[in-house]
Amino acid sequence: MSVPDEGRLNSLKSLTQVVYVLYALSYFAGITAIIGIIINYVKKDEVTGTWLESHFRWQIRTFWFGLLWAAIGAATFFFLIGMLILSANFFWIIYRIVKGWLSLNENKPMTF
Q1: d(CA 106, CA 101)
Q2: Does the pLDDT of residue 1 top 80, yes or no?
Q3: pLDDT of 109 strictly over 60
Q4: If you ran DSSP here, which 8-state letter would residue 50 be given?
Q5: Is 99 exposed, middle or buried (0-12, 13-18, 19+ CB in 10 A)?
Q6: Are residues 40 and 59 in contact, defined by beta-carbon separation less than 8 angstroms?
Q7: What angle do CA 66, 50, 33 make, to 5 degrees?
Q8: Does residue 85 belong to any structural domain of this protein?
Q9: What is the C-alpha separation between 28 and 82, in angstroms, rounded?
Q10: Model-level pTM greater than 0.85?
């Protein structure tokens, strides 16, 4: 796939920002994270080969690992460890949203 022109790249950057917003809003309405991950997968091919590809990879990993740790935390909630896992997951997701958003605003790819 060819690299998108400047206008298309700006549009994809805006879309990437929308996904970060949807992930942040998921703390108030969980459905927004699902909308965000769908956007990531639908538009993934369009960002291939651009610096935005790393943001999509970052967002997708944030969603799936966040979901995994939320499930583990929920499954072990009645043990003390579940509450700790859920708390750690909460802050880890916030960290990933903030770090990604800041890098996006500086037009920098995500480094892993």
Answers
A1: 9
A2: no
A3: yes
A4: S
A5: middle
A6: yes
A7: 25
A8: no
A9: 21
A10: yes
Our count of domains for the chain comes to: 1
Residue 110, domain member (yes or no) = no
Q: Is residue 68 assigned to a domain?
A: no
Q: How far is the C-alpha of 98 from the C-alpha of 24, rounded, in Å?
A: 9
Judged against a pLDDT cut of 80, whether residue 2 lies above it is answered with no
Domain hosting 29: range is 6-62+93-105
Are residues 56 and 47 in contact, defined by beta-carbon separation less than 8 angstroms? yes
Provide the phi-psi class of 92: left if phi over 0, else alpha when psi is between -120 and 50, else beta.
alpha
Q: What is the pLDDT of residue 101?
A: 97
Residue 56 lies in a domain: yes
Q: Give pLDDT tens digits for 33-79.
A: 999 999 999 999 999 999 999 999 999 999 999 999 999 999 999 88
